[in-house]
Amino acid sequence: MDCAGDPFALPPSAGAIDTGLREAITDVEQQFVIMVVRARKSIRARAAAIHPELQPMGFKVLTILAQSGPLQQGALAHEVDADKAVMSRTIKALEALGLITRTADPSDGRAHLVAMTTAARTRFDATRSEARQVLFDRLSTWDAGEVRRLANLLDRLNESND
């Protein structure tokens, strides 16, 4: 299967990579798979802690609102890379759960600002605090140099994806 059909297939240019590097990249890929599975479980658990009916897309919207403050629905759709219909359904669901409010945007009378409710913000912050504590507990047994190296390598990897 080629790279277009298999997102995990190595590109044709990978043939020139030495065996040791190829094996190391495969090991990194396996670790990323484990990390992504755990991250998804964590997101589902955090969402359920905020509200038992909160879906992952709604959690993503709350995460953006927690970072940015109130936003127009179109800006939220852009941030999560969702079409307007999906965002509209998500916003309606969040509003029904009492997690967000919509108010008229004073700078654009045709638009509404979406904001987290106080209760949603409190629950969101509590779950974020718990998640940060888990990360702290895992990394606090490491040497400070190892943690800094991990941060630098992740930064380098993230920068290369732009």
Describe this structure in words.
One of its GO terms (molecular function) is DNA-binding transcription factor activity. Pfam families: MarR. This protein is mostly helical and 162 residues long. The chain has a single domain, classed as Winged helix-like DNA-binding domain superfamily/Winged helix DNA-binding domain (Arc Repressor Mutant, subunit A, Orthogonal Bundle), CATH 1.10.10.10. It is 64% helix and 10% strand. The protein has six helices and three strands, in the order ααβααββαα. The chain has a three-stranded antiparallel β-sheet. Helix 1 packs antiparallel against helix 5 and helix 3 (73-80) packs across helix 4. The chain starts with 18 loop residues before the first helix and ends with a helix.
List the helices and strands and how they pair.
Layout: H1 19-50, H2 56-68, E1 71-72, H3 73-80, H4 84-96, E2 100-105, E3 108-116, H5 118-139, H6 144-159
Antiparallel strand pairs: 1-3, 2-3
Give keywords.
162 residues, mainly alpha, Arc Repressor Mutant, subunit A, 3-stranded antiparallel sheet, 64% helix
The radius of gyration computed from the alpha-carbon positions, rounded to a whole number of angstroms, is: 20 Å
Number of strands: 3
Q: Bin the helical content.
A: 55-70%
Largest sheet: 3 strands, antiparallel
| Mean pLDDT reading | 90
Return residue spans where pLDDT drops below 50 for at least 5 consecutive residues: none
Oligomer: single chain
CATH architecture tag: Orthogonal Bundle
Domain HTH marR-type: 29-159
Protein name: MarR family transcriptional regulator
Pfam family, one: MarR
InterPro entries: HTH_MarR-typ, MarR/SlyA-like, Tscrpt_reg_MarR-type_CS, WH-like_DNA-bd_sf, WH_DNA-bd_sf
